[in-house]
Design goal:
Helices cover 71% and strands 0% of the residues. The longest helix is centred in the C-terminal third of the chain and has 52 residues. The N and C termini lie far apart (88 Å). It has four helices and no strands.
Length: 123
């Protein structure tokens, strides 16, 4: 498999536009610009679907931190944000439950412990 090279968003737009103008001859663009055939094809398909925004390199970025490119992506980002809020709320609820249980048990221990020692010492 041929190793491609790094490209800028501007280069990708130029390559895709040339590719479309040449009748989607991915092989020609692959040789001319020293990028892989598959990469040229993927860029072209994304460009046709989302325009120039589809050619941005978004690897390594979380959904909640991204700016949306389409309405579907906007909805997916919102879903991820809501899932995160729900996760935090559930964690807080569970922590408060454990704290409440610990506080209920603590007075019982402190009341029974001295009574046991005191009654044993008196006998």
């Amino acid at each position: 498999m041929k190793q491609g090279r790094g490209t800028t968003p501007e280069e990708r737009v130029q390559i895709v536009r040339e590719c479309i103008a040449s009748g989607k001859n991915y092989g020609e663009m692959d040789l001319k610009h020293q990028v892989s055939y598959q990469q040229v094809r993927n860029w072209t398909l994304r460009f046709e679907e989302m325009g120039e925004a589809g050619l941005q390199d978004r690897r390594g970025r979380r959904k909640k931190d991204q700016t949306p490119r389409t309405e579907l992506e906007q909805a997916q980002i919102e879903i991820e944000q809501l899932k995160h809020k729900l996760y935090l709320a559930e964690m807080e609820r569970d922590l408060l439950k454990k704290l409440d249980e610990a506080e209920r048990e603590m007075p019982l221990r402190s009341k029974t412990a001295p009574g046991l020692h005191g009654s044993q010492g008196m006998s």
